[in-house]
Design a protein that fits this description.
The complex is a heterodimer of chains A (130) and B (383). Chain A has 130 residues and is mainly beta. Chain A has one helix and eight strands; from the N terminus they run αββββββββ. The chains are: A mainly beta (130), B alpha/beta (383).
Chain lengths: 130, 383
């Protein structure tokens, strides 16, 4: 049916709706200017309620990374790389890494399709990004 | 008139059956350890009026209380992960000092090895973890700690060899402990040649996965004074926690051992230089390096070199992981209780071939959660 509930919950659904459009949405506090991820119904920096949403530029740097060599999830064939990305706007998020970028290297956002769920962010070296 | 002694003591400790334990339940293991620890204190289960447990099922203190026949005046099933037991010493010392209970039993047992029930990752459910971190396939706890180690290596030049030295150090101690799970010779090259798991970790950078557990009795000076075994004084304790998701960790190279250690050392009236024995939480090799730095045994970034220089080895300046640690002795899912058991035995002079000569002050440091989420530090002393 068309009345499927949105992916996520009230607070996180806008993120996943953005993901469906291949846009990385993060929260932005109008009161203090802070950006935050994951989403919350208040600003962690200044405690103001109802942060708004903004589309991240999709650029960041690799803050930490690991190559996983053991089977964890049937959908993921090892070895694969998982990174902690520091977005240009400030917040960090866990994401898949493509093309083996090193810590400190600039990376750009792409998306990876999933069965039955919105796509997931994946980051690649700036020049290699699609 | 004699002034009342308000000091708090660990009056008994015991290990539960360790290694592979196919023939017990977690509750029967806890019962064995609790009775043995209480016997060291000259007490029985009848005298316990405070129960402190974690990972013993839903409403853990209720389940353990029923099994042991204890109706407590004070109960605590706080979950700070594997470091809960150091936090429990903190809580128990306050509860006993306030007169809210007199004989506190801290206990734990796990059969994670026999049950093979340890999850490899979080479910991709509607939790924040399920939505935002689980889908990327970080192997549970290993992947989060690997990210932490990768950042420490990037910022401070910590090397895979230095990480391997932690595992080798643990093994050197385990060779001196007949109860240790892994006692064969181990070199840095062996660690580096073991299969990669989640870089920078090789198999031998990761702790064992064994059954095991233990028990601890915390009580007042008055109740401890007749114990058949030497009671060990709790000088100070501290605890804290920061984040659950790795994305929320402000600085991957700094843990809340800074706060738990600062508080514990200040309350104990000591500095890191006063510590004779250190029992760090060695779930992964890199964790020991971060704890050394954050507790102030060396400067930030120097933990790798501090280990490589042999300071933690038998005869070193800071003997650490003296029973062989989670890396070589036993890691029953939550290691914290066994760090306390070993610290007490070292201070009593009961550690046999691995005894640190004249040990007077020991620190047990527990960590918990999946990414240095929580920390709790206990300072113990021989009177």
């Amino acid at each position: 049916m068309t009345d499927e509930p949105p992916f996520g919950d009230t607070t996180t659904a806008p993120f996943w709706e953005g993901a469906e459009r291949r846009e990385l949405l993060i929260q932005h506090c109008e009161a203090c200017g802070a950006h935050q991820f994951y989403p919350r119904p208040f600003c962690l920096a200044c405690d103001a309620p109802d942060p708004s949403w903004t589309t991240a530029a999709g650029r960041g740097t690799v803050y930490a990374r690991t190559t996983v060599h053991i089977p964890v999830d049937p959908a993921l064939e090892p070895p694969y790389v998982v990174g902690l990305i520091e977005l240009e706007e400030g917040p960090r998020l866990v994401a898949a890494l493509h093309g083996d970028p090193a810590i400190g290297e600039p990376v750009r956002l792409g998306w990876r399709e999933r069965e039955g769920a919105p796509p997931l962010p994946v980051f690649s070296r700036e020049e290699a990004a699609d | 008139m004699v002034t009342e002694d308000h000091s708090i003591y660990v009056a008994g400790v015991a290990e539960a059956p360790l290694g592979k334990v196919p023939d017990h339940t977690e509750l029967s293991m806890v019962a064995l350890a609790a009775r043995e620890a209480l016997a060291e204190a000259g007490m029985t289960l009848r005298e316990v009026d405070g129960v402190f447990v974690n990972y013993m099922g839903e409403e853990g203190s209720i389940q353990v209380g029923e099994y042991l026949g204890i109706q407590p005046r004070y109960a605590d099933s706080s979950d700070l992960g594997g470091g809960s037991f150091e936090a429990f010493v903190h809580h128990a010392m306050l509860a006993v000092a306030a007169g809210h209970c007199e004989v506190a039993l801290i206990a734990y047992a796990s059969r994670q090895r026999s049950r093979r029930n340890r999850a490899m990752t979080f479910a991709q459910d509607d939790s924040l973890m399920g939505q935002f971190e689980a889908p990327y396939g970080l192997p549970l706890a290993i992947g989060q700690y690997a990210l932490i180690a990768s950042r420490h290596m990037y910022e401070h030049g910590t090397t895979p060899e230095q990480l391997a030295h932690v595992a080798v150090t643990a093994r050197e101690w385990a060779k001196r402990n007949p109860k240790a799970w892994s006692r064969d010779a181990l070199t840095v090259e062996d660690v580096l040649a073991s299969p990669p798991i989640s870089e920078p970790f090789h198999k031998l950078d990761c702790c064992l996965r064994t059954d095991g557990g233990g028990a601890l009795v915390v009580t007042s000076a008055a109740r401890a004074k007749d114990a058949p075994k030497r009671p060990i004084r709790v000088l100070g304790a501290g605890e804290s926690h920061t984040q659950w998701h790795i994305s929320q960790m402000r600085d991957l190279t700094v843990t809340c051992a800074r706060e738990s250690g600062r508080d514990a050392f200040a309350r104990a009236g000591i500095t890191p230089a006063d510590v004779d024995v250190f029992e760090p939480y060695d779930n992964f090799t890199s964790s020991v390096i971060l704890q050394l730095e954050d507790l102030g045994f060396c400067a930030k970034g120097e933990g790798g070199a501090f280990v490589e220089d042999g300071n933690l080895l038998p005869g070193g300046s800071l003997p650490s992981m003296t029973m062989g640690g989670g890396l070589s002795y036993c890691h029953p899912g939550a290691l914290g209780i066994l760090l306390l058991v070993e610290a007490v035995r070292q201070l009593r002079g009961e550690a046999g071939e691995r005894q640190v000569p004249d040990a007077e002050i020991a620190v047990a440091h527990g960590i918990g959660g999946i990414s240095n989420s929580a920390a709790a530090t206990v300072v113990l002393a021989r009177d």
